[in-house]
Each structure stands twice: as C-alpha cells, then as structure tokens.
C-alpha cells in the first residue's frame, strides 16, 4: 500500500465501501439484445420475467415454484431452485433445476408476495 504525504503528514487512502452482493443475477449470451428496440412485445415480457419466481401448474395437478431461467420456441421452461407441491399446504419437495415441457403446462403466473401481508407495509 502506498502512502501519500501532504505537508509532512502521512495520509493513507480510504478503502472502498463494501459492496452488497445481488441475490440473483441474470446473464445473457446476447447482451446487445437486452434493450433492443426491435424485440417483439412478447420477448420483452419474457426478458422482464427472467429471474422472477414462477408458479406453474402442470397437467397432473402438481405445482412447481422456482426461478425462471429460460424458455424455447416449444414453450418448455427451465426453473432453478424449484420446489414441487403435490397438495396445497403440504411441505414442498425440493427439486433443484427443472425443465417443464410446454405441452404439460396448464397455467403459469408470477409468484409475487401479497403486499398487504408484508410486515413492512404500515
């Protein structure tokens, strides 16, 4: 570490402030497309959903909840840190990374916390 002196007094540089890590960072293989004006509205919506928690109901009644990672033109969806719910209200089974075939998806929604149930709302 180098020291700086001003009028005979030793001055040490101040360390940079600590950075807070992001909980979940989205990366893309095509960063030039993230803000591309030529994207269709559907693709823009999908990009906004990246990294959000999705709740997917599939044809056999199971509910899958996890972070939205990617999709393809066949409507297959990849979720990370996914949990499977067989019956509403029971403990989930943790699955990890899951690929959900598009042909088995009955419904899909963004799983956001209810702002009225938050302890931060006064």
UniProtKB/TrEMBL annotation:
<dbReference type="InterPro" id="IPR001163">
    <property type="entry name" value="Sm_dom_euk/arc"/>
</dbReference>
<dbReference type="InterPro" id="IPR050914">
    <property type="entry name" value="snRNP_SmB/NAA38-like"/>
</dbReference>
<dbReference type="GO" id="GO:0031417">
    <property type="term" value="C:NatC complex"/>
</dbReference>
<feature type="region of interest" description="Disordered">
    <location>
        <begin position="1"/>
        <end position="21"/>
    </location>
</feature>
<dbReference type="InterPro" id="IPR010920">
    <property type="entry name" value="LSM_dom_sf"/>
</dbReference>
<protein>
    <submittedName>
        <fullName>N-alpha-acetyltransferase 38, NatC auxiliary subunit</fullName>
    </submittedName>
</protein>
<dbReference type="InterPro" id="IPR047575">
    <property type="entry name" value="Sm"/>
</dbReference>
<feature type="compositionally biased region" description="Polar residues">
    <location>
        <begin position="1"/>
        <end position="12"/>
    </location>
</feature>
<comment type="similarity">
    <text>Belongs to the snRNP Sm proteins family.</text>
</comment>
<dbReference type="GO" id="GO:0003723">
    <property type="term" value="F:RNA binding"/>
</dbReference>
<dbReference type="InterPro" id="IPR034110">
    <property type="entry name" value="LSMD1_Sm"/>
</dbReference>
<feature type="domain" description="Sm">
    <location>
        <begin position="41"/>
        <end position="114"/>
    </location>
</feature>
<dbReference type="Pfam" id="PF01423">
    <property type="entry name" value="LSM"/>
</dbReference>
